[in-house]
Amino acid sequence: MGKKVIIWDSNKCKTCYACIRACDVKAIHVKPNSVFPYFEENLCVHCGHCIAACAYGAISCHDSKEEVKAMLNSGAKVAAICAPSIAGEFVDIADYRKFVKMIRYLGFYFVNEMGFGVDVIAAKYRELTAQNFNGKYFITSHCPAVVELVEKKYSDLVPNLVPLVSPAAATAVIIRKLHGRNVKVVHISPCIAAKNTINRYKGNAKIDAVLTFKELRELFDEFNIKEAYTQMSDFDAPIGYKGGLYAIAQGFVEATGLDSSLQNGNTTTVEGGANTLQAVAQFRDFPELIKTNFSLFYCEGCVSGPGMSDLKNKYLKHTFTKDYIKKRLANFEIDRWFSDVMNHSKHKELEVQYEAEPYVIEEPDEYSVSVALKKITIPKKGVELNCGACGYETCKGLAHAVAQGTAIPEMCIPNSQVGSREAVINMKRHNEELEKTESKLKQVEEQFNDADVARRSLKSAFSTFVRNLRTGVVITDADLKVLDSNQGFLDILGEDAIEIHEVVPFLVGASLKSLLPASLISQITYLLQHNDEKLSKDVEIHDRLINASMFPLIPNQIVCIILRNLHSSEERPEEIIDRITEVIEENLRQVQQIGFILGEGAAKTEKMMNTIIETYKK
Ligand code: SF4
Ligand code: SF4
Ligand code: SF4
């Protein structure tokens, strides 16, 4: 029916299901393969209660401000019909005639009060239920949410709906009868369900747009319309009488003038979604016994309608409404009003036949319901708590919805609390395990740090050892890059190498290929690849016979080459080689016991090397 009234924003939704619990008609489903609410338009009565229930602002209603502004700018005469609960909304405005004028400032040509439309509908209701009573009881049709409820959920009761348009539509009929059928009509209301009546009523009864009070305030702000510099102006005729009390649920029966006493009254007033559902269900289930008409308000009176900017202080708003009516009726011309009601009650357009639009969904079989019930009750050890926290009256109710595919077992709050407890316990356990793991990791990290320190100590110790040897020593990696060397090595290589050493100390990083004869390089490469224990080769470097002894320090990775000038009397290679071999063997043992090498091993190695150095110096 026109634009979508209830708008849901998946980006804001936190799947808290508060909306589902607030929806008395159960129009918000959760499909089996989803966790998000799904708004079943064919069942929704557009009451807007889910909007107030959603703390995350994920649900809103269609905003009509733009279309109203367009209407006001179109050149057409636009009439505003103000719902009587406006007195409970603008408590900040001292005199109602101020907000009437403020509405005129927006560009409305007529500003009418819906109270007169209520009076006309009340008069016709009185006629229908009192004078023409023929054993048939009625459900009022003044609340659009109730009309939708009956049409969709209790469609067999559609013939019992009072066959009259809503009070707002009745006011529209009267305005158009007075001012012509081209007048556009905007209903200003606390009612979100009213937004879904656009296009429901035709011809003179048509409502062109519905502005909530919230939207009206926003328009005042947008156009900087303030009470302070606003003059007074009264509503356009015809003025309502007790119809102004319609904002309070009992006000409708009072406006009918019917006996409203418990003993003799023929109409029971019910307010609120859940109560309304119960009333309609009992009306259907006990047709012979119920013996009452129902005046139903899906909210707790329109003064609590979701289009109010503040839903608090319902009873204070009742007082404001009554005070407003008293003020308005101070110089009331009752005879004129009566004659106006009589005249306008005759309009044919006030009558309407509502149509059933039953929402049909397949009933689940018993087996599926019992399976669903098991899923719900197993975490509670089979107990059906029937706490209603899921939004369904009983666990079976939720199970029925689960089996029907309109709910999921996870909506059971006690289950999720049981689940939460388990989750909390599990989380604590995991946290503890995590802490233990963390502490182990710290230990490992410390060991690694120690190992790193040890490695660095070892490297530094080895470097000290190498540098203190007078024999030429060079250490190379698998890429034949110099890792370390000493003065003896530089002396063997000659002046060029010594000059480079000025810039690149001990030629670290230089390529051995450019420093040593190719025959020696091939031996080193062979050693790196084959991992032999030790190789020895005599080569000529700068016309001197040099003996090169080489052995792996780390198999396949690092090779140590000791170069001796065979003409030098200073060399005492046997002892050095023996000592270095001892170092290598020690290192190999350490490699096998990594933990050890990374700890005490470094200190031990350094000590041993110092001994070697001392021995060598002797
Ligand atoms: S109330 Fe509904 S729409 Fe809002 S966050 Fe919760 S589940 Fe989502
Ligand atoms: S508008 Fe009313 S009926 Fe529709 S989903 Fe929200 S609470 Fe339910
Ligand atoms: S009770 Fe009033 S505000 Fe609420 S849905 Fe009905 S008519 Fe609208």
SSE arrangement:
Layout: E1 6-8, H1 18-22, E2 28-30, E3 37-39, H2 49-53, E4 59-61, H3 65-72, E5 78-82, H4 86-89, H5 96-105, E6 110-113, H6 115-131, H7 144-152, H8 167-179, E7 184-189, E8 209-212, H9 213-222, H10 251-256, E9 267-271, H11 273-285, E10 293-297, H12 314-328, H13 334-344, H14 366-377, H15 395-404, H16 413-468, E11 472-476, E12 482-485, H17 487-493, H18 495-503, H19 518-530, E13 535-541, E14 544-554, E15 558-565, H20 573-592, H21 594-617
Parallel strand pairs: 5-6, 5-7, 7-8, 9-10
Antiparallel strand pairs: 1-4, 2-3, 11-12, 11-15, 13-14, 14-15
This protein binds iron/sulfur cluster (3 copies).
Description of the molecule:
This protein is of the alpha/beta class and 618 residues long. The chain has 4 domains: 1-62, 2-Layer Sandwich (Alpha-Beta Plaits); 63-350, no CATH class; 361-411, no CATH class; 454-617, Beta-Lactamase (2-Layer Sandwich), CATH 3.30.450.20. It is built from 21 helices and 15 strands. The protein has helices spanning 18-22, 49-53, 65-72, 86-89, 96-105, 115-131, 144-152, 167-179, 213-222, 251-256, 273-285, 314-328, 334-344, 366-377, 395-404, 413-468, 487-493, 495-503, 518-530, 573-592, 594-617, and strands at 6-8, 28-30, 37-39, 59-61, 78-82, 110-113, 184-189, 209-212, 267-271, 293-297, 472-476, 482-485, 535-541, 544-554, 558-565. The strands form 5 sheets. A 5-stranded antiparallel beta sheet has the order 12-11-15-14-13, with helices on both faces. Strands 6-5-7-8 form a 4-stranded parallel beta sheet, sandwiched between helices. Strands 1-4 form a two-stranded antiparallel sheet. Strand 2 (28-30) and strand 3 (37-39) form a beta hairpin. The longest helix is centred in the C-terminal third of the chain and has 56 residues, at 413-468. Residues 47, 143-145, 190-191, 193-194, 297-299, 302, 305 line the site of one iron/sulfur cluster.
